[in-house]
Amino acid sequence: MKAMILAAGKGTRVRPITHVLPKPMIPLVRKPVMEFLVEHLKAHGINKIMVNTSHLAPVIEEYFRDGDRFGVQMAYSFEGDLIGGQIEGKAIGSAGGMKKIQDFSGFFDETFVVLCGDALVDVDFAEVLRFHRERKSIATLVLRDVPPDDVSKYGVVQTDASGRIVRFQEKPARDQAVSSTINTGIYVFEPEIFQYIPSGVEFDIGGQLLPELVRNGQSIYGVTLPFAWLDIGSVPDYWEATSLLLRGKVAGFTMPGNEVRPGVHCGINVQIAWDRVHIEGPVYIGSSTSVGDGATIIGPTVIGSGCVIQPGAELRECILADYTRISSVAALEQKLIFGSKCIDPSGRYLDIEEKRNQ
User: Fold this and answer.
1) Which H or E run includes 189?
2) Residue 146 belongs to what domain range?
């Protein structure tokens, strides 16, 4: 079976992390979120995967390549232009990206799955496909209920008693929302949808394609299932998702590395004198990282590979990208360190290099 992972967005709400990483490559406890998706698709027998790319496309394409090491087949559709001898990304919308692939090769010649590359999910695709085929739907959306205060972050859906979708709202204000049921960005489509998507223009699934299907009286349904869904659409979302994983609050997630102390997991080749440091889990420490004597690390904390935590440094509830050095005088609490960026869970940040050069 075939699938498409949507991975062309700039990830503006996750800046400044997405200055250096495309959103699907943001790590959730050492593994890019998109890798979880590829593994989950494969587990459900979905092994031919197209990915549309644009912003920082080589980071995605060079990591996954042809998908062979993940047991699937993968290919890419780059969205952008050659300007002044330089390739520049220019996304054409989620539906526009599908249409470009279909116009190129007719890849989507059977029922297929589409999902966003920026959320960890464990949805039961077998159940979704059963629902989809039972209702002879042209498009089926996986839905979930959210607290009313959160509806403005998502596309809101209204269904009838049979699950047929009768109305869409894109990120409505709370007092204008017709429901608190939202579109998770996980779809099952039939190839017939392509007659409703124009070629060569920017076109969106949630804002344009789905309302067009409803206006044309097409059978389009939504199914609400219990499943884990960790959306990392913003820096606060990413912070919360990492904390939930470290605390063991996500069913089916297994911490990487070895548990060397209660609640403390490590990769291999770490340099730590355990009797001369103070570490309280949940904590993950990446391979080839050194932690100096007298350091304090309080979880939930993730430390990447190749990091150096100098003697006496203090880290409380932090996320460090690979090859980060923390000095002896540092005392960091609730900070994300990606390159030169020191980021609060709210998304506010300080560029250390800029400050140093002022």
Assistant:
1) strand 181-189
2) 2-235
Q: Is the pTM of the predicted complex or chain greater than 0.90?
A: no
Give the span between the Cα atoms of 196 and 130, in whole angstroms. Answer: 24
| HSE of 224, CA atoms in CB hemisphere, 13 A | 15
Which residues, in sequence order, are CB contacts of 277 under 8 Å at separation 6+?
A: 291, 292, 293, 294, 295, 296, 297
263-295 pLDDT per residue, tens: 999 999 999 999 999 999 899 999 999 999 999
**Backbone dihedral region for residue 275 (phi beyond 0: left; psi -120 to 50: alpha; all else: beta):** alpha
28 plus 111 within the same structural domain: yes
Please report, as a single letter, which amino acid is at residue 20.
V
Could you say which of 235, 270, 288 is where a domain stops? 235
Domain count, the chain: 2
Examine the domain organization and report whether 25 and 141 are in the same domain.
yes
Q: Is residue 14's pLDDT more than 70?
A: no
Whether residues 155 and 293 share a domain: the answer is no
Strands of the sheet containing 325-326, edge to edge, are 271-272, 290-291, 308-309, 325-326
Is 247 part of a structural domain of the chain? Answer: no
φ, ψ of residue 286 to 5 degrees: the values are: -70, 165
